[in-house]
Every structure is written in structure tokens, then in C-alpha cells.
Amino acid sequence: MLSSNVWTIFSLYPVLLTASDSPPAIFADSGNVITVSAINPVTGPGARPESWASYTIGGLEVPVLFDAVGEALYTLCAFMAVGALGYARKRWRASRPSKEASPKAKDKLSSIYSKDAQEGSLQETTDVPQMASTPMRIRRTAETDMLASAVRAGKSASLPSLLDTARERVLAAGLTEDLEWQEAEHLLSALRACASLHCFREALTAYDHVSTRIGAGDATIWSLLLYSAVGAGDFRRCKDFFKKLCVLQAPSGQDFVNMVRYYSHRHDQKGLSVMLEELTQIGFKLEAVDRNRALAACTSNNAMDLAEILIRHEGFFVAMDTVAYNTIMKAHAQAGKPELCLAIFEQMQRSGLTPSEMSFGILLDACIDARHFDGAKEAFEKIRKCGLAPNVVHYTTLMKGLVNAGRLDDATDVLGEMLQSSTTKPDLVAFSTMVKAYSDRGSVRGAVRILEQMLGSGVTPDSIIFNIVLTGCCVRSMESSQVLHVLTWLVRHGLEPSTTTLSILMKALAKSESFEAAIQFLKDCPQRLNLTPESRIYAQLAQACSKAGYSQRALEVYEAMAEAVFQGEVNVDEPTNLRLNRLCNSCGFHTEAAELYAKIAACRRKTVRPSPRPTGMSIKEKKRS
Fold first, then answer.
1. Over the Cα atoms of the chain, what is R_g?
2. 337-to-147, 334, 365, 521, 581 alpha-carbon distances in Å
């Protein structure tokens, strides 16, 4: 009675706000007549007029608050009502069933997978549970959030124990109704988190732990398990997961791709053909993107026979597009079959499709890798006939192929065509390809000419290209003056000499046995190049002198290094000093080698001194203080 009167007061609150100065009023509430009249207004010293009043409702005198507190209570009740409506709407939406397969498709799937088909078909097993009445829509709860968070935190290996803990909490809360459904929700949350992080083996382990506790499961669970089995390489379980999925609903495009991966891994042509026919019977539709992914799965497993089955099947496929043809072409190119790659290319043209730049790139790579250079030039002409302009990658690919074939003049002509083009200018990779081609053949003049064209085109060479040009001096014997002239030209055009540059230079001078010029250059290097040679450069030159039979020159290199150490220009470590000492000893210069070794060792002792021990207090005394 009291609670009913309180709610009545709140329902009549807008009227009561103005009732203090009004005569008694009568209202009807649930068939009862309620008399509301103001009595006992608050008066007296210090009292706020008409702040409080008493009202008689159903014979009960109730004080009513008219100030801000009463208004706040009324607002709170309004918010509570809105919240209750929102909660009820959320519960209603959560209880709605998700989209499922049509009844006709379900009947066909059930009949297909329950019959005894021939070997290799998708047969139903006796342990497949009955089809769930409605597909599962995962409900976000504290348990599902906890499981997903644990997987994201790297605890996917602990999923079996975490699933058991979630089950125990559900039982402790007394929520035993639909326990299988709740455990399936927990597993589904864990599987989704594992799939997003590619924890495939952990997902399969979690399923094995609760497989007997989830009942019929859900189509999404079997789809995720199929994906996990393929990702983990556990292909023996794919067929069973796919069967259980198809009993509940029609497979998706992703499920189809995963099954193609399974069959391509086993190279099972018969199994793939049977699956295609069965899916055709239920009206399965496949998007072009999933078809292309399935083709890529076949080519990655070198199952071109299965790819041909997918191409020839016309039950539910869309027409082949450029991406699909490119996928098949690339597979033939990687297999070293340019003739098949060219046949697919021509088939694509006959179908009315326009080849893309990637199509020509794949065809060029196939011809180059197979050293079919006439075919590469023919592919280049096809690019022009199709109205496409060859890009830098096409030109560079053709140049590399011609260089590898020893057709340097043809490669140079391709570079000249690029230079004359207004849209396709050679880049750093194209120029470096030709510079290296000339340098590897010892044609320093040709390498310098390409480098001049590079500078004239506004492309800035890096230190690697400069050093490649200098490496060309090491292929054939050249006069020391010519080698030094090339170095001077390179420095003038932007080369910043480094230890690598000095090493190449010593090798080039040793090629022509110009050891005297090499020793003198090392002495003058700090002034000429503003670069101090490292000790390993001296060791390299001394070794070259000894190998060529110039023992006296090897000793001179050791003396030049000792002088540089004495002047403080070079730091020599003990292994390098010992190496040159042994080298000169092997050449018969025992006394000189011993003196030079001692001289360098003495300079090292002066340079590398141990830190002086603090005077005054000892270390222990300092610690105590």
C-alpha cells in the first residue's frame, strides 16, 4: 500500500508542484478516487513559506518536497525508465537469430553428407552431432572477454585450463541451463582470438579439450577450426570439420579456399572434383576474389592439375579475370615453362581481357629466366601493341636478361631507348645494372660512359656505383697512371673515398704489380684524399707483394706502416703487427722484422696506457669513507 502511494506521488508530481495555492483536487488512479488537498503549510520564524506541505492520499497524510531535491528525484526516475527500456531492447536484439542457410540448402546438405558416397567424397561420419536449431550469436560476457584477453596476452597455451575455470564459475553461479551452449560460446571466443593471432595449434588443442562438452557446436566454430587446421598444417582434420560445417549451413568463400588448400596439399584431384559437384548441387556461389585465392593456393603447392580443374569447372564460378590469368602465368613462370606462360597469355587475349602491366612483367620474367630472349623482345612488342607503355621495371628486366646473355650492345640500346623516352626515364637501378655489366667485363671506359649519362640525366650515383666503376680496373692489368686517373675522375664527380675504395685501389695496382706506386699512394693518402689508411690495407698490400714474389716490397710496406704508427696516423692492433712480422720473417728479413715489431709495440704501449691508480687512499679506504 505504501509503495503504491509513493509511485502515485511521483506520477502526480507535476500537478503537486502547483497545488500549494490551489483548492483541493480529485484524481482518478486505477479506478480509485484520490483526494489531494494542501494542509499544514510550514510557517513560523526562519521557515521558507510553502517549502513543505502535507497531502492526504487515500486517507494517508504524506509530506511532499517541493524544492530542488524533489525535482532531482523526479529526474532520476525518468533516467531509470529510459535505462530500463534500453536494457530491454539490448536483450531483445541479442536473442534474435543470425542469418542461416535456407531450408532448401540445409536439406540438400544434410542429404549429401549423410549418404554413403564413393571414396574421396565428403561422407558424413557417425559422430557428427545433430544440426543446431539456430546458429550461434556469441554473447559478450565476462568469461568470453577474459578468454579473448588471455589469448591476446600470449596465454593461448593455457586455454584448456582457462576454459575449465570458466565452466566452474558458470556452475558455481548456478547457471546450469544451456551449459553446452555457454561452453560453445566460450570456445568460439577463444577460437576467434586465436585465429586473429594465428595461434592455430593452440586453437585445436582448446577444441580437443572441450570437444565432448559443446554439443552440436556452431557453424562458425567449425569454420574457425577448419581455418586453424589448415594454418597448423594438420590437414587430416580438415575433412571432418568441413563435414560438420556443411551439416549446419552452406560454406563460405573462405571455407572453400581452405578446402582447396587441403586438396592441393594432398594433390587429390578426385576429392576436389567431388566437392565441386556437391557444392554445385546446393547452388553454392563463389566470388571472383575467393576463386583467385583458391587458384593461388593450388599454384603455391605446385598443384597445377587442381588449378586446371578449378578453371574448367563452370558450375558456380564467375568468368576468369586478369588476376586469375596472372596467377596461372606466374606459376608456369616459376616452374620454368615460358611456353605455357605464353599460351595462358594468348588465351587471356582471346577471352577479350586486356593484359595488365603485371601480366607483361610476368611474361618477361618467364622468358628471361628461361633465357628465351627472343620471346622477351616479342613480349616487349606485345606491350606496345596493346597500347601500354613499358615501365621502368619492364625495361630493367629486359636489360638484366640481355646482360646475362652477354648481349651488352642490345642492353645498351634498351637503355638508350629509355633515355629518349619522355615518360620512362632510367632510375638508379637501371643505370647501376649497366655500370656493373661493363665493369664486370673490364670495360672501364664503357662504365664511365654510362656514369656520365647517369649524371647528365640528373640521377645522383651513390658510393657503391662509384666503387663498381673502380672495380673494373681490377679485371685487367692497367697502368698505375690510368688507375689513378680513374680514381681522380671519380673523386671529382662525387666519390667520397673510404676504406673500401682504398682496398679496391690496392687490388687494382697489385694486378699490374705497381707496388711502388701503391706504397707511395698509402704514404700520400692523408694529403691526397684526406683519408688515413687502416692497418688492414697495409696488411693486404704486404700480402700481395709477398704472393707476387716481391719480398723487398713487403718489407717496405711494413716499414711504411711502422712510420705511420710512429707519426700517430695509424693505430695497429697486436694481431696485425704479429701478422706482418711473421710475413717478413718468412721472406728472410728476421732482424728488420724484429726491429719493426718492437718499434710498433713500443708506440702501442705509449698510446694505450692503463688508467693510473688514484693516489692517496686505496680503493678500500675510499669505499669506507
1. 43
2. 50, 8, 11, 54, 59
Q: What is the value of pTM for the model shown?
A: 0.56
Q: What is the mean pLDDT of each run of 10 residues along the chain (625 residues)?
A: 43 44 42 43 43 46 50 73 72 50 46 39 34 44 86 92 90 81 91 94 94 88 94 92 90 92 92 89 85 90 88 75 88 83 84 83 80 73 72 84 84 87 86 92 92 90 92 91 93 91 93 92 90 91 92 92 87 90 90 90 68 42 44
Locate 105 and state its grid cell.
540448402
Amino acid type, 52: W
Q: Which of 292, 300, 261, 256 is nearest to 275 (CA)?
A: 256
Our measurement of the distance from residue 612's CA atom to the centroid of its chain's CA atoms, rounded to an integer in Å, reads 54
Place of cell 718468412: 586
Check: CB of residue 120 under 8 Å from CB of residue 271. yes
Say if CB 496 and CB 464 are below 8 A apart. no
CA atoms within 13 A on the CB side of 214: 23
pLDDT at 158: 92
**Residues recorded for the chain:** 625
Phi, psi (deg, nearest 5) at residue 93: -65, -35
What is residue 29's three-state secondary structure? strand
| The C-alpha cell that represents 49 in the structure block | 513559506
- The DSSP element (H or E) to which 35 belongs, if any, is strand 32-36
| CA atoms within 13 A of residue 602's CA, in its CB half-sphere | 10
DSSP letters spanning 42-77: --STTPPTTSEEEEEETTEEEEEE-SHHHHHHHHHH
Measure the CA–CA gap between 76 and 541, rounded to whole angstroms: 93
Structure letter (DSSP) for residue 423 = S
Dmax (CA) for the chain in angstroms is 134
- CA 270 – CA 276 distance, rounded (Å): 10
Instruction: Tell me the C-alpha distance between 601 and 595, whole Å.
Output: 10
**Which grid cell sits at 439?**
665493369
Cell of 442: 673490364
Count other Cβ atoms within 10 Å, centred on residue 558.
26
**Contact predicate 489/448, CB 8 Å:** yes
Cell numbers standing for residue 293: 585465392
- C-alpha to C-alpha distance for 383 and 558, rounded to whole angstroms: 61
User: What does the alpha-carbon distance between residue 124 and residue 109 come to, in Å, rounded to a whole number?
Assistant: 10
Q: For position 370, what pLDDT does the model report?
A: 72
Contact 550, 587 (CB under 8 A): no
Backbone angles phi and psi of 500, in degrees to 5: -60, -40
Contact, 526 vs 532, CB < 8 A? yes
- Give the 3-state secondary structure of residue 119: coil
Cell digits of residue 21 = 495555492
Query: Residue 209: which of 257, 172, 158 has the closest Cα?
Result: 158
Following DSSP, what letter does each residue of 332-348 receive, concatenated?
HHHTT-HHHHHHHHHHH
Separation of alpha carbons 187 and 205, rounded Å: 11
> CA nearest 557: which of 593, 586, 503?
593
Query: From the centroid of its chain, how far is CA 366?
Result: 27
